[in-house]
């Protein structure tokens, strides 16, 4: 035991060493016992632990203290302030505070003469090289700026509220500025009306009182659903317009021809998409392998639009695409990664038109395993444009005029090849969390019509498995050629999450015996034995939350969810920049002509790109989710007092988060409204437990609720509980602790505990939908 002052109080090093040695299984009580601290020392100990947590040296979660999760060597960070010495302090741009506690702090080391593009200030977002600090005082990490991505913005989005005397106030949409209303003088209102969604420039003021602003842009009435997606676009700084130079480059692009390409125009490739898709960037074909040494095997072709031919490295078009990182899909609009001339014209594989493509031809054995593959740069001509339900109906005996002639020569071989590939897929046993995805359908005026769950067909799974095969082939080919690439990686769950899951399953008397290496099959066995049981939705949610988040990386550490050693996104370069990098690398590796990955691209530079597009992907997912929340809250705003059935989708000290069965909307039942007794949060059981009655409300419970309040701009709903399928907790198993009684806040009603798997976002408006299994799946 190490002490360093007259009172015998342990120093920071000793406390941190003790926490590390016990791997997070300690709290204030254990630390005090270890160092012989009396009650009078507890206040000082809590103060020191708060400092350590604020500096990111330790992580405090609930009543346990542990080492903070390690940060990757390259990450995007927001510069949040300065320390007492004036040094810049940053925090990770993407950080789950519910899962990981307070974000760690990073002290920025600035050279005396910063390189161009690395001079930063408070409020900026920058790409950093990060490592653990050797200092025991201050932040746990130190970083060096590689590049400033975004400068601090002086523009805020909000709702204009008119004042009787003229002018008005701005109520910011972003919850970070929710308590910062701004004054707008009449001369600066630019004709804004009460309820208008506006962006304003902050006018610096030296006086007291509210800061003031000037309306820069009017975006329409917030009462219109068509303005809802604009809130997310502006709030998350998603680029809406392409630069004029990028538009000019797109318009000047010439269609691909046979020069430097193989002629595959006679291969009857077909596209299979949602019925309202506008762009068609992948096509498939399959036939039995005529090789007598592969009897029962197949040859599968996957052709992907040749975006690398049109979007060359270093062009303005390329820079705009990298800035966006990916397309963003909202129910009423799409913010594409590439201009329409590229995505919906030159790179859309429409029937009967010659189109450039990068194709992979794969030989599949009778056991469903890929035996070999080869990439080709081709000129193709799609034989047909089909939708999922149309292709499935033909196989199920209901062909139409389009699919009838294609049934025997094209569709049956495709489905036979899928049945073969599925054998290997089942043997591989990837994580089986096939959760339903809801889709919002809009009316012609942009209002919500209804929310549906599209049926999951074999046609979806067929495309998904063929895309996975193509992605694996791309990663294998580039590794074989020793070329740098961006992998799609998915880490295994942390031991902490696995242990938490095991403890939770124990409360349900569900065995969870982990032995040997962690594999998806372990989770699949749990799900399989509970399928059809009342607890299945609950366990599915908890298993989902135990998983890590997939990301892009120049370093390969495998894909846990798919149970694959190497995996790279290749199949959607129209909407994902990662796929474009892989296409360019293949062109370079195989000497396929123009548009190759430059020699200047190294694992180090691609690591920066991977960090950036991982953040843009999460930005898109968050924007899409918030827009759906706002649309549904707007849709339900005139149904205050109505009753709904739902399921508890999150449990926190704030209360219960409920997902409605009818619309999938999320809302809060504040803990204060659950009854007259106190409720304690039982983390192990994901439940709130009444201290007097033992009444237990837990994750997955079916509940009847009444809608009490709707805040459309924030996407928030508040419910009261009418009835529940919950149970009573045994007295000796209830967990006690302080109760919180928070008030309902009019901003995001989604549970902070809820982490969805990344998925491909669909365009739900007629004519603008795209949802294709693995090409956009979380994994």
From TrEMBL:
Signal peptide range in chain numbering: none
Residue ranges annotated for the S1 motif domain, each copy included: 641-722
Key word Hydrolase present: yes
Main location: cytoplasm
Enzyme Commission number: 3.1.13.1
Subcellular location: Cytoplasm
Protein keywords: Cytoplasm, Exonuclease, Hydrolase, Nuclease, RNA-binding
PANTHER family: DIS3-LIKE EXONUCLEASE 2, RIBONUCLEASE
Family per record: Belongs to the RNR ribonuclease family. RNase R subfamily.
Function: 3'-5' exoribonuclease that releases 5'-nucleoside monophosphates and is involved in maturation of structured RNAs.
Identification of the protein by name: Ribonuclease R
Organism: Bradyrhizobium hipponense
Organism classification: Bacteria, Pseudomonadati, Pseudomonadota, Alphaproteobacteria, Hyphomicrobiales
Gene designation: rnr
């Amino acid at each position: 035991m190490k002490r360093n002052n007259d009172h015998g109080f342990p120093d920071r090093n000793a406390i941190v060493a003790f926490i590390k040695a016990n791997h997070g299984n300690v709290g204030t009580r254990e630390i005090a016992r270890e160092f012989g601290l009396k009650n009078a020392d507890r206040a000082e100990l809590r103060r020191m632990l708060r400092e350590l947590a604020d500096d990111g040296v330790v992580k405090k979660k609930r009543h346990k203290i542990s080492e903070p999760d390690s940060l990757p060597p390259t990450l995007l960070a927001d510069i949040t302030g300065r320390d007492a010495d004036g040094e810049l302090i940053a925090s990770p741009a993407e950080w789950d505070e519910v899962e990981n506690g307070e974000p760690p702090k990073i002290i920025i080391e600035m050279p005396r003469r910063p390189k161009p593009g690395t001079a930063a200030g408070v409020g900026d977002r920058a790409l950093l090289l990060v490592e653990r600090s050797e200092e025991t005082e201050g932040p746990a990490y130190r970083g060096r700026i590689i590049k400033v991505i975004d400068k601090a913005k002086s523009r805020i989005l909000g709702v204009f509220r008119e004042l009787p005397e003229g002018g008005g106030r701005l109520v910011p949409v972003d919850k970070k500025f929710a308590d910062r209303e701004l004054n707008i003088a009449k001369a600066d209102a630019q004709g804004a009306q009460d309820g208008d969604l506006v962006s304003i420039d902050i006018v610096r003021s030296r006086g007291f009182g509210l800061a003031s602003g000037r309306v820069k842009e009017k975006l329409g009435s917030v009462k219109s659903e068509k303005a809802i997606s604009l809130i997310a676009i502006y709030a998350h700084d998603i680029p809406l317009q392409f630069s004029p130079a990028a538009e000019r480059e797109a318009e000047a692009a010439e269609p691909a021809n046979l020069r430097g390409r193989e002629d595959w125009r006679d291969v009857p490739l077909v596209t299979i998409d949602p019925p309202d898709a506008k762009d068609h960037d992948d096509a498939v074909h399959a036939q039995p392998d005529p090789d007598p040494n592969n009897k029962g095997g197949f040859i599968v072709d996957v052709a992907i639009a040749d975006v690398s031919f049109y979007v060359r490295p270093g062009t303005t078009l390329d820079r705009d695409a990298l800035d966006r990182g990916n397309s963003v899909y909202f129910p009423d609009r799409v913010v594409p990664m590439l201009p329409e001339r590229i995505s919906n014209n030159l790179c859309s594989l429409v029937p009967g038109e010659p189109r450039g493509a990068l194709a992979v031809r794969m030989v599949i054995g009778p056991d469903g395993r890929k035996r070999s593959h080869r990439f080709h740069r081709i000129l193709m001509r799609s034989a047909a444009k089909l939708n999922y339900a149309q292709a499935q109906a033909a196989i199920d005996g209901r062909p139409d005029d389009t699919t009838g002639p294609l049934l025997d020569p094209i569709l049956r071989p495709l489905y036979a090849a899928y049945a073969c590939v599925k054998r290997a897929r089942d043997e591989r046993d990837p994580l089986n969390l096939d959760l339903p995805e809801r889709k919002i359908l809009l009316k012609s005026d942009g209002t919500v019509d209804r929310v549906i769950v599209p049926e999951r067909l074999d046609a979806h799974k067929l495309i998904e498995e063929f895309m996975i095969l193509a992605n694996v082939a791309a990663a294998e080919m580039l590794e074989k050629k020793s070329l740098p690439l961006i992998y799609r990686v998915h880490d295994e769950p942390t031991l902490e999450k696995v242990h938490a899951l095991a403890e939770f399953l124990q409360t349900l008397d569900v065995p969870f015996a982990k032995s040997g290496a962690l594999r998806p099959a372990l989770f699949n066995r749990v799900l399989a034995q509970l399928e059809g049981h009342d607890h299945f939705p609950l366990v599915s949610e908890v298993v989902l939350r135990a998983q890590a988040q997939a990301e892009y990386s120049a370093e390969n550490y495998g894909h846990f969810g798919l149970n694959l050693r190497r995996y790279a996104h290749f199949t959607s370069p129209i909407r994902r920049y990662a796929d474009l990098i892989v296409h360019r690398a293949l062109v370079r590796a195989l000497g396929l002509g123009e548009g190759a990955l430059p020699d200047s691209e190294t694992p180090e530079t691609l690591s920066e790109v991977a960090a950036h597009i991982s953040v843009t992907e999460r930005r898109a997912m968050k924007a899409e989710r918030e827009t759906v929340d706002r649309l549904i809250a707007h849709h339900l705003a005139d149904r205050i007092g109505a009753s709904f059935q739902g399921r508890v989708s999150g449990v926190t000290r704030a209360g219960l988060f409920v997902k409605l069965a009818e619309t999938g909307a999320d809302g809060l039942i504040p803990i204060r409204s659950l009854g007259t007794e106190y409720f304690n949060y039982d983390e192990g059981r994901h439940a709130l437990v009444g201290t007097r009655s033992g009444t237990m409300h837990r994750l997955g419970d079916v509940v009847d609720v009444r809608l009490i309040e709707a805040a459309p701009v924030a996407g928030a709903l508040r419910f009261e509980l009418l009835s529940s399928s919950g149970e009573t907790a045994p007295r000796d198993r209830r967990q006690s602790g302080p109760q919180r009684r928070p008030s309902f806040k009019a901003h995001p009603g989604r549970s902070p505990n809820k982490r969805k798997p990344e998925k491909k976002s669909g365009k739900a408006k007629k004519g603008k939908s795209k949802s294709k299994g693995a090409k956009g799946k979380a994994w």
